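Below is how a single chain appears once it has passed through the pipeline. First comes the sequence as given, then the structure the pipeline wrote out for it. We keep one example in the README because the format questions we get most often are answered faster by looking than by reading.
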Amino acid sequence: MSTSERNFARRIDLTSLQLFVAVCELGSIGRAAEREFIAASAISKRLSDLEATLGTTLLYRHARGVDLSPAGESLLHHARSVLYSLEKMQGELSEYAEGVRGHVRVHANISAIVQFLPEDLGAFTREHDAIKIDLEEHLSNEVVRAVQEGAADLGICHIPDGTNELQTLPYRHDRLVLIAPAGHPLTATQGPIDFAASLDFDHVGLHTNSSIYVAMHQAALEAGRSVKLRIHVTGLDAMCRMIDNGLGVGVMPQRAFELLQAGIGSRLRSVTLNDAWSRREIRLAARDFSTLPVAARTLVNHLHTPAAAAEPLAA
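Resulting structure:
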């Protein structure tokens, strides 16, 4: 900020701006004086001083009240913006003084919800028990759309390529693995396999619009094959149960399988995939992180940790 700009800012009195806005809204110095509980002569003096400071006429005074000059119309626009910003600043600072309170709407995909969010949100609410979090599970493309349309403050999912309308931050990395029953031909290998090797077998898959299924379908197309999808399920636990009962093999995040494995014993195995698309990044998404309410920004700061951002993609 230049010296002239600093001097200008020092000459502008916020109380005078508030009174100027009141006069403009009511169309009369007298009515503004009644509403603001101040003498009309005091308002008139402040407005004259403001005009002298700005070096231009702001109001045309007449017997019925006042009319705005072109310069006055411009000042009214800027004055309202300044006063609104001050009110917003006061509200946010009072939230810090009283302990952050608020309500955050979060949409996340199944991978984030099953693998990471229970622990992360649990730790957050223990530190910020006055912040309410509404969490909804959606497919990744639906999460992105909800954030774009303002239905969610924060999205947590795999961000499709070409999503330039949103700002994103790293959250976690995960890795997709193939799940098959113990003794299945695909579990006999001692090392990673290509996803294409699974295309000879029936698959248990998630919704066709899920990011996992889209990646599988694209990989099959590149191999000149198709996925033999025997059954659709809506959750990873249902996928494990279907695979455990001989209905096919499936692809899911490795950590999710490890968390679910306790309920199915040792009957299923995971096989690492060679494919680059099996190593993924889960990101936080918002229309503009800087304009989020304090409660939402507090959650973002909790989830966007250096340790998570630095987590390697490799297994």
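Residues 58 and 69 are 5 Å apart (CA to CA).

See the next section for the split statistics.
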